[in-house]
Amino acid sequence: MLTIENLTGGYGETDILTGINLTLEAGEILTVAGTNGAGKSTLAKAVVGLLPRVNGRVTLSGSDITRIPAEQRARAGIGYVPQTANVFAALTIVENLEVVEGVKDRKQRIVEMFDLFPALNERRRARAGSLSGGERQQLAFARALMTRPDVIVLDEPTAALSPIMADESFRRIRELARTGTAVLLIEQRARQALAISHRGAIMDSGKVALEGQADGLLADQRAAELYLGVGH
Amino acid sequence: MTGFAELLLSGVMSGLIIGLAGLAVTLVFGIARFSNAATGDTMTLGAYGALLGTTLTGSLIFGGLVGLLAGALAAVLSYVLVFRQLANRSPISSLLASIGLAFFVRAGLGLAFGHNQSVFQLDIVRPIRFLDLRIQPNDLKFAAIALVTLVIVFIILHMTPIGRRMRAVADNPLLARVSGIAPRPVMFTLWAMAGAVSAIAGIILGMKTVVSPEMGWDMLLPAFAAAVLGGIGHPVGAIVGGLVIGVAQELATPFVGFTYKIAVSFIVLLLVLLVRPRGMFGRVEGVR
Ligand SMILES: Nc1ncnc2c1ncn2[C@@H]1O[C@H](COP(=O)(O)OP(=O)(O)OP(=O)(O)O)[C@@H](O)[C@H]1O
Ligand SMILES: [Mg+2]
Fold this sequence. Notes:
The complex is a heterodimer.
Chain A: E1 2-10, E2 17-24, E3 29-34, H1 40-48, E4 53-60, E5 63-64, H2 70-76, E6 78-81, H3 93-98, H4 106-116, H5 118-122, H6 133-145, E7 151-155, H7 163-178, E8 182-186, H8 190-196, E9 199-204, E10 207-213, H9 214-219, H10 221-228
Parallel strand pairs in A: 3-8, 3-9, 6-7, 7-8
Antiparallel strand pairs in A: 1-2, 1-4, 4-5, 9-10
Chain B: H1 2-32, H2 39-57, H3 60-83, H4 91-113, E1 128-130, E2 133-135, H5 137-159, H6 161-171, H7 173-178, H8 183-208, H9 220-230, H10 235-256, H11 261-275
Antiparallel strand pairs in B: 1-2
Helix pairs in contact in B: 1-5, 1-8, 1-9, 1-10, 2-3, 2-4, 2-8, 3-8, 5-6, 5-8, 6-8, 9-10, 9-11, 10-11
The complex binds adenosine-5'-triphosphate and magnesium ion.
Magnesium ion (MG) is lined by residues 40-41, 83, 155 of chain A.
């Protein structure tokens, strides 16, 4: 579904990403973990088309999208929930969904999103800027799902959430993957994320340091010590 | 008392013109993220366009439409030729370029039309008497045009898909792109709207007073002040800001004299910003 080959790139002169290779199949969840500043968000931006300078190749369902602008990638089926500023604060909830382009049968899709996130429906005329952290994250998720994406990139979707809401979020992500969506899940709660993932990758200084089956990584002593934190 | 009411009335009229110019400034600032110093000269261009159109067609209405289209077209061109090229640089480069563009437009208009003042041939109509107040029927028409303009801008921004996209881009341009919103149609619409609104301001000003190559440039600082006063990026705020400045200027004129009335707008601006740093209508968003 999504392949990333020899991806390098960054914001200015220096490469933040230094040779990334990853693949993601339909219905698969791939957790990307790693320390702060490892380049996880930068990788997400490279995939969705927001990184100013990239080399290498990104393909979606076999077609090269490396040079395609972000808005066309979004319409081609890449959904994205950024780590921060992931809703239009000045727009109402319903406007946040209506404004998305490249949606077939928009009205119907909005109804589906409100069925999926009933809390949003109750406040549909409220400005997104007035939402709580949890509601905001739901709206960000719903907005990214509007296009029925084949691949969704989630950048730390549970970072601002309470443990209970995080569990709820992981449950939704698993359900989404069951319907065939490929999920690139960047997470600080790496153990919990790996527990619902098929595969995992651990990034360090712009590279993939470790990659493998999720359960293998969870059992891996080295991964545990270096990146996942002991315990939990 | 009549004197006061008449000053108030004339303050409202100049306030509406300042407010429209401020509206153009605030639209561009909200989406393209810089203060467009060419706004005033787009007004002038609109006024000359209307003058030319009126002469050619013999109709003020058609003339006005010509001026409006000229303003919109000029603004779109300024985006395509200048501001789009600078979009990835700092806002300062766009601001400086807009100052250059302002000089360029003004010089061009001076060359084309000369530096003499021109006037619109409006029918002389007897003022309406309301209590002791004399009201020019044309002023009522101008006020109506200004308000209709504001309402149309509001409808476009809040009730049409392209307006929703414009507000999304204003709010968060990167999120807009990953939501599939192509920047180009949004920017074209923005510039066409800002140019048309500037032109309307210029046409009204030209009809109320005289048309000269400097007319718009002189309005630039009050227009910026109105935009800031209203809370930058807030369309209704810009009009209200313009009204506050226009009225304050006129009411102060008997005390400070004509020469210093511009200074009054800045005193008002300072006072309001001391109390409300984000302007009258600006609101502090929650953390995004
Ligand atoms: N907009 C930017 N411009 C320049 N450099 C940036 C930008 N964003 C991030 N960086 C740099 O890129 C590197 C990787 O940052 P990135 O945000 O990808 O890390 P991350 O793994 O997502 O970290 P975190 O866990 O804190 O979110 C860091 O050194 C950071 O300083
Ligand atoms: Mg990050």
